[in-house]
Automatic annotation (TrEMBL):
Taxonomy of the source species: Bacteria, Pseudomonadati, Pseudomonadota, Gammaproteobacteria, Alteromonadales
One GO term (biological process): tRNA wobble uridine modification
GO cellular component: cytoplasm
GO molecular function: GTP binding; hydrolase activity
InterPro entries membership: GTP-bd, P-loop_NTPase
PANTHER family documented for this protein: TRNA MODIFICATION GTPASE GTPBP3 (PTHR42714), TRNA MODIFICATION GTPASE GTPBP3, MITOCHONDRIAL (PTHR42714:SF2)
Protein source organism: Pseudoalteromonas phenolica
Coiled-coil ranges (or none): 469-506
Name of protein: G domain-containing protein
Alphabetic keyword roster: Coiled coil, Hydrolase
């Protein structure tokens, strides 16, 4: 037999992982507790009551068809045990006349339970204390079903035992101030509980079950439970509460996360990615043009340096001194330019990039480090990327201690090679009296200056391109992943909404 309240509880538990992240104001836990309390009130709990050795635990085992409830002559614990059966919840307690601390547990449970399955062992019918507790529960308006647990084999003896209980109930009703109508509502059935358990454990052995009285008992008991558990209105109320407090807020939240919000963010990310790609190309060109312009302005100084220098070491030193300021200026320009590009990013896009690039294990920075690997050690490069002060882009904070100024050494190496032209020029200088030789010297000087500028332009240009490319590539790669993530989030929202709606439909279909 179905119990819709247990099905609702299962529905709640199944949907919680979907509803929780989409429930407004982070109230999911309090709502869950509230609904769970309502469900606990509506899942019919059947408390087994009687003397502690009357056969309550044996009856539970017979009902569930397994030996789960511990069977002891004397209770060893004061805890209350719960067993799900046939859509109901069976409650096993220490029982009447148990040691006082155990009995208090039983009395406390009576206050919280509406339906009692009272087990009376044949031979205990005359126990005054037993009937006192029975009538106390009747006066609390509890619904009571009595099982007379017997070992009798003769049908007439069973009838006699049954009639004796009825007589005692009727006789003591006036003594305890209980109406005859209340007594008439009490069901009493005899059953050999031990034999019933054996039949249940032997694959529902029909002969044992019939002989024990279990077959008659279970039919009557379930019908009695149905009449007792008339909860159509309560079922409707709890389903309404779950819909209003649980599902509808989540459905509204998922519905208002409409795709326009994700579409706008997706569009902004794609536009910003295209902007970064475009500026990546243009900045490389601008950097090379800037280097060319600076070298054009200093060609005469380079020429003068060559003409006034008397040895190669001096030439190397003076050329490097001329070239270094280009590196410093180029560094400042790249810092400022990349910062300006970053300033063009959408605020939300920039925030997402900041989170991606500033993580401790950023794969984007790792790739940038690898791309810039020939400019220094990995630690130094990562330090540059993560401690930059002028580059106002995600993942670059602090100060750059060594950048293009030091990289100018790359140019110096090439310059050292090129100053071999010094030998050619020196030979021509010794013969400056001859016009032809003067022209050759002039050509050699021009070529030397031009070659030096070409090397510097190439070295600084390559360094600038590598730096600009890798720094912006880190952002572009991160943006690519954000674009994929946003698209997946949008798709996930639609999937989650449909799952929640399906679970809500399942809730509404629950019934008896």
């Amino acid at each position: 037999m179905r119990n819709p309240f247990i099905e609702i509880e299962q529905n709640l538990n199944e949907s919680k992982c979907l509803v929780a992240p989409n429930h407004p104001n982070n109230q999911i836990d309090s709502v869950y507790v509230e609904l769970k309390e309502k469900l606990d009130d509506n899942i019919l709990q059947i408390m087994l009551y009687g003397a502690y050795n009357a056969g309550k635990s044996t009856l539970i085992n017979a009902l569930i068809g397994q030996e789960k409830a511990a069977v002891n002559d004397i209770p060893t614990t004061d805890k209350v045990d719960y067993y799900d059966w046939n859509g109901y919840r069976l409650i096993d307690t220490p029982g009447v006349n148990a040691p006082i601390d155990h009995e208090e547990t039983t009395i406390e449970q009576i206050k919280r339970t509406q339906v009692m399955l009272f087990v009376i062992r044949e031979g205990d019918q005359d126990s005054k204390d037993l009937y006192q507790r029975l009538f106390e529960t009747i006066k609390l308006n509890k619904k009571i079903f009595i099982v007379l647990n017997h070992q009798l084999t003769n049908d007439s003896d069973k009838v006699t035992a049954y009639q004796k209980i009825i007589q005692i109930l009727c006789h003591k009703a006036s003594e305890y101030g209980v109406s005859n109508e209340s007594i008439q509502e009490i069901k009493v059935l005899p059953m050999n509980v031990q034999t019933a358990l054996k039949g249940r454990l032997k694959d529902n052995h029909l002969q044992l079950l019939e002989r024990s009285g279990y077959v008659e008992f279970i039919d009557v008991f379930i019908d009695w439970l149905k009449s007792t558990d008339n909860q159509d209105n309560q079922l409707s109320a709890i389903k309404s509460a779950v819909n209003e407090l649980w599902y509808q807020p989540a459905v509204n939240q998922l519905s208002t996360k409409d795709t326009s919000e994700h579409n706008e963010l997706l569009t902004r990310c794609r536009e910003d990615k295209q902007m970064l790609v475009s500026h990546q190309r243009s900045l490389v060109i601008e950097a090379r043009n800037m280097i060319s312009h600076e070298l054009m302005l200093m060609k005469s100084d380079i020429s003068g340096c060559i003409q006034s220098t008397h040895d190669q070491a001096q030439l190397d030193s003076q050329l490097q001194r001329l070239i270094d300021p280009i590196g410093v200026k180029l560094e400042a320009w790249i810092n400022d330019s990349l910062g300006e590009v970053n300033g063009l990013l959408n605020v939300e896009v920039s925030h997402r990039l900041q989170q991606s690039l500033s993580s401790n294990n950023s794969e984007y920075l790792d790739k940038a480090i690898k791309g810039l690997g020939n400019m220094g050690t990995a630690d130094n490069i990562k330090g540059l990327l993560l401690q930059g002060r002028k580059l106002k882009i995600p993942g670059l904070k602090g100060r750059w201690e060594k950048t293009l100024g030091k990289w100018a050494g790359k140019g110096a190496i090439a310059v050292q090679i090129l100053t071999a032209l010094w030998d050619v020029y020196s030979e021509g200088k010794a013969q400056d009296q001859q016009n032809a030789q003067e022209r050759e010297v002039a050509v050699s000087l021009y070529q030397a200056v031009d070659e030096i500028c070409s090397v510097v332009k190439r070295e600084y240009g390559n360094i600038s391109e590598q730096l600009i490319t890798e720094i912006l590539n880190a952002q572009i790669r991160a943006l690519d992943d954000e674009i994929v993530k946003i698209a997946e989030e949008e798709n996930q929202i639609q999937q989650d909404l449909q799952k929640v709606l399906n679970l809500q439909s399942q809730l509404n279909a629950i019934g008896y």
